[in-house]
């Protein structure tokens, strides 16, 4: 399999977490399914995939508007998180992406920019043994605007002290790819590599 390339003018790497470093999407989807059944939420798998990178509560807000639901976003999010944390010990790394982390550790500044909650993101990195490679993590708890807004990635660049045009973002979700492009960063869709 072809390996992921780093562009010549890249001075820092920013990684999305779920579906990019961590093969956690199947667990997220299963948690969504269980929570939706309990709370009576209508959604399609394709819709959920199109929202990859958004916090759960934001997705519920969208579904409430679309389907005329009145589901409590925080309540849904907490229940979904409960299901997810029970299974998160099963998360595996996506080696085609984590290989970059190992290769460029201490050579280039690196950060994680995720639409997930900080507590879950930190635990995911710990489970994968990646916590020792990242001192910078920007989560949904650290921004006011979520992907496709570029705030997450711009904050990563700022914390690393690298200008956005010299950051290369690794993403699996359409919203994250848009966010990186809006930030003026180079972006690599990692999905063809796993």
TrEMBL record:
The family database entries (Pfam families) matched by this protein are listed as: HAD_2 (PF13419)
Q: Which UniProt keywords apply?
A: Hydrolase
> Per UniProt, what is one GO molecular function of this protein?
sugar-phosphatase activity
**What NCBIfam families is this protein classified in?**
HAD-SF-IA-v3 (TIGR01509)
Keyword Amino-acid biosynthesis recorded: no
Q: Which PANTHER family match?
A: FRUCTOSE-1-PHOSPHATE PHOSPHATASE, GLYCEROL-1-PHOSPHATE PHOSPHOHYDROLASE 1-RELATED
Q: State the protein's name.
A: HAD family hydrolase
